[in-house]
Amino acid sequence: MKAEMAGTIRDLIRQANAVLVGAGSGMSSAAGYNHYHHNAVFETYFHDFEEVYGIRNLFQGFYYVYSKPEQEWGFYSRYIRFMEEAPAGQPYRDLYAILKEKEYFILTTNCDIQIPKVFPENRICQFQGDFRYFQCSQPCHDKLYESHDLVTSMLDNMNGLEVPAEWIPRCPECGWKMVPWVQDNTFLQGEMWKSAYQRYEDFIRKYQDKKLLLLELGVGDMTPSVIKLPFWDMTAKFPDTFLVTVNLAKASAPEHLKGKSLMLCEDLSRFLQEIK
């Protein structure tokens, strides 16, 4: 990125009354945690699952149709512990350095625990959940359960790549198996989710008539209704809102947002270092 453009972005941040960040999977990919492609991290930590099941990446491993729950939870427990122990990536730390003196909020589709390692919980909305928690798979009640101790028990008692049936987490209310609290057809949009989303909406209401900067970072086309489309809508409707979209492969915005937006095809790790 040219020095002039980096200066422009820094000025936009400095002049804004508030910054709303939309963070997608490209942020974690820039940090070295690519959940969608085969890479060295996967080979290091999950090569045995690749050898047995032919799984090629973390996303595929999570949604793979295993023949029994013991195999499924073998991958889940290893995957969750990997995310727990993975250090906060440099792009996230750089983003915090950029925002720490500003009024800001982060909406994210990421569930991989990277953002909560760096940012306070009251400034984030994890729209698609968080692997630090389990829920009932029905769900029969509105409660989330911390996953750490349950994952430790599963890993301590694993038989090869499988978790014995008696160690698979069960709902304490109804006895059905639990599942990670991440987006699927049984995802619990209960009190914790609603509270976070309310904080997001409150932030927008507070700054919609002020100088609001929208930073869309590493957002693809998988779930456009969460970040991309609402950000376009806010840019069009709010009088003093400006949108900056940064993505390695593709950065775009509608023609009618010309003059109120910048689209940059940049490596996010380098981009954040340069505007810090």
Secondary structure: elements and pairs:
Blueprint: H1 3-15, E1 18-23, H2 25-30, H3 40-53, H4 58-63, H5 69-85, H6 90-99, E2 104-108, H7 114-118, E3 124-126, E4 129-136, E5 145-146, H8 148-156, E6 178-182, H9 191-207, E7 212-217, H10 228-237, E8 241-247, E9 261-265, H11 268-275
Helix pairs in contact: 5-8, 6-11
Short description:
With 276 residues, the chain is α/β, with parallel strands linked by helices.
- Secondary-structure arrangement, i.e. CATH architecture of the largest domain: 3-Layer(aba) Sandwich
Mean pLDDT: 96
The helix/strand series, from N terminus to C terminus, equals: HEHHHHHEHEEEHEHEHEEH
- Our measurement of the CA-to-CA distance between the termini, rounded to an integer number of angstroms, reads 13 Å
Shape: globular
Tell me the domain tally. 2
Specify the CATH class of the largest domain: Alpha Beta
DSSP, total strands = 9
Walk me through what this model shows.
Helix 10 (228-237) links the parallel strand 7 and strand 8 (241-247). The protein is α/β, with parallel strands linked by helices and 276 residues long. The mean pLDDT is 96. The strands form two sheets. The chain has a six-stranded parallel sheet with strand order 3-2-1-7-8-9, sandwiched between helices. Strands 5-4-6 form a three-stranded antiparallel sheet, covered by helices on one side. Helix 5 (69-85) packs across helix 8 and helix 6 runs parallel beside helix 11 (268-275). The protein has helices at residues 3-15, 25-30, 40-53, 58-63, 69-85, 90-99, 114-118, 148-156, 191-207, 228-237, 268-275, and strands spanning 18-23, 104-108, 124-126, 129-136, 145-146, 178-182, 212-217, 241-247, 261-265. The protein has eleven helices and nine strands. It has two domains: 1-33 and 88-128 and 188-276, TPP-binding domain (Rossmann fold, 3-Layer(aba) Sandwich), CATH 3.40.50; 34-85 and 130-186, SIR2/SIRT2 'Small Domain'.
